[in-house]
User: Fold these one by one.
Assistant:
Number 1:
Amino acid sequence: MRLIAFTLQLVGDPSDEHLQSISDAAQRPDVAVLAEDAGVTLIGPADSIVDAAVAGAHVGREDGAKIRCRVDCVGDASEEAGEVAQDVATRFQEGLAAAAGQPATRPMTELPSMDPYDSAQLILHALSQPTPTPGGGSAAALAGATGAALVAMVAGVTVASDRYADVREEMERVRDRALLLRDELHALVKTDADAYKRFMEAQRLPADTEEETEARREAVSKTAMFASETPLEVMRRCLTVVELAARLVRRGNRAAATDAVVGAQLAAAAARAAWSNVRVNLPAVKDLAMRAHLSGEAGTLGRQAKEAEIHALRASEVEKR
């Protein structure tokens, strides 16, 4: 039986009581619950893990916490294990939406009547203006969203072909996941711009007295942390996009394999670009432990995205033979 390790990591400094309430909600007969300094790790079979993780995260969110998730197959780094972990992550997101009494998140599949080439000019125009925002962080999120859109397209082409009927169900999951990632990354275009605006506003606060100087330093540190967290969110999603693209190169419609490779390259480049934004904002974060944590996670995500991109490129070369 394959075991899943599902970590619910709380952003900030959670109290022991908060961690305990999440641990209690996640208790299941066949799930081990391990409370750590900044989160809770669950270990067990996939079906039970999804149920436990949804229950724990729902309680955590009710308390106002921001929660990040990581899913791994215990002791298994194979490609198949990665696919299982991605499926668990998708089921978790759907279950969490249902637990919150919301409809399952539906990606945008239809647009109002407009020329897509003209509408793309809006964000390109905004990026080209001589203003600090939107800037490189927003551009990274946009590149990642574009990569996710290509991944969704390739999965959709595969679903539509009778030649790939044996992987249709898998490809439908990949398509739906990619569409959701596309919309999340698109939303991060504005989130990044807003985060950097707040960071700049904090830097302009008065510092004429000791009290004002300390208040300004605190505001700069807090907004710098958020300005670092946003490109980290971009990196997390882009890594998943690259991994999905690599799977499509191997198992998707071969006629669209090049599009899957381009999707992987775009998302990997977006992850590297977002990494640059994390690095430039981190020095203003006053909490040294948090700074080290964010830097370490960004480095890991950057390396993983690069490895996944190389894997997609190698798979593409194999498929051409």
Note: The domain at 4-99 is CATH 3.30.70.930 (Alpha-Beta Plaits).
Number 2:
Amino acid sequence: MLAEAGLVSKLMKQPFRTIKGFFFSFIGSNLYKNGLIARTKTFYDETFYINLPAGLDIYLLGIKSHRAERRLTTFMLEHLKSGLFVDIGAHFGFYTQLASHLCRDNGRVIAFEPAKKTYEVLKLNANRFHNISIYNEAVANVSSIQFREYAVSHSEYNAAKAQSISTEYSTDGIAFDDYEIKASSLDQIIPHNKGQDVMIKIDVEGGEEAVIRGGHEVLNTLNITVIMEYHLHHEAGTIGCQKAWDILQNLGYIAYSIKDDGQLAIIDDQSPENYLRATNQLVDNLVFRKN
């Protein structure tokens, strides 16, 4: 895995950039309503844009630094070489761009980001790659949803309004916009081509059930790897993940955790909640595959 010690060492070797990153984040949080766009390099040396204060870890380190995100990155490095990658809840497009880099001419990437301001940053990171298509839409089992977009400082908590987590994340007083956004379903998005490998990454803060319900046909018939950010730290996310997992389990999927080396380990009792509690995690990226 992209080691924690290596990330700490990188910070220590670039003190000026670290100070600058925190300074720009302060400015983005306090002086600019829409944040502060900054350019950086990813760990694989590709230009990447973020909107500070969101994405500070990418600005400083070239990678999403949370342990669960580093494991997911390592998993993709080990297992994604071709096929179709669908990024649902792409945010600024870190995994969108990584998938494009890994697949190159052997695959394509489709990314969905419903938040209007966040989507503008995603465009900066995606539009110069020929194998990426991006959409300012949600993914669900309905044609549109009511969406809540927070100020950039809390943009990673953007969610369908029904799954809003504001009361559980101390976002009272944080500016937000509510609006209706178009939604497409997985069955509409993914070509019904049985010869194609498909990897789906889902990070939707409580909207997991709607995503999975909209893909019953393709999830039942195609060779699909589902990566889902699984929550215990807020009720909306936990319920959405639980209901999504119930559907996947009924379709014959098996739940796996990602080890530090990017390989998979079957979750013994097939209870993601028990796994997270046993490993003292509030959130992790779990993988779901058929036998």
Note: The two ends are 26 Å apart (CA to CA).
Number 3:
Amino acid sequence: MKCKVCQNKTKLIFTAIVLKKITAVFFRCPFCEAVQINKPNWLEKAYTDPITKQDTGLISRNIACARLTLYVIKKCFNQKSSFLDYAGGYGMFVRLMQDSGLDFYLYDQYCSNLFAKDFEKGKLSSGKDYYEMITSFEVFEHLNEPMIEIGEFFRHTDSLLFSTTLLPKKEQIDEKWNYLNLNNGQHIFFYSEKTLEFIAKKFHKNLYTDGKNFHLITSKKFLINPLWFYMISPTVIYRRIWNKLSTILKWKPIPRMNHYELRPFKSK
């Protein structure tokens, strides 16, 4: 099969069982290094429950993404503009953003919006809305045709902040890699840093990544990678040191977020 990102010929690397009974064939592109599934015809069944029971990190992930997004917007973007969270799930992330004083909206085709009902948008292609930035956390691995959907994002923004776990750099994955999430069958496309570099270049953008989970593709140019700058911020370093010591000395770990970190931005 041809790679859905760069259109080069892929190579079969392994097969695995998804949803406990369906055989999935995984291919790797030798050019952009993306790993993908050919014809995932089980998706309708996989999305019977959009948010699976295995997603035990749902709340902590929303809090972590909110903290990072607040930092990036404050340092790099216009805080008075509008923002959109694509595939925003229950709306917890958007609620956190709204409570922090940002004009944030949500779109999700599959999941019920529980926490941000007044801030929901219709399908991207149905309107001409333009956003300072679109966020999309733990979504890219769900995209069957990533270039088409990413292209749709960039019709409505110049900046895309998202998360997806990158493929390991020094080893070949197999069916034992946890991020495949074979039991729920929703993860069907996997990216390396080289894949993201190709995507950014294709859309005439710049890529900034922490090299693992969080990534920013944008028309903006920064002297310092804002994601790395966030990772070395005093608050993050302090929390990591404290939590490491708490593991060793059995202290109480620092909560992932508190009201000080989610205070509204001061008006200029």
Note: The CA atoms of residues 31 and 70 lie 35 Å apart.
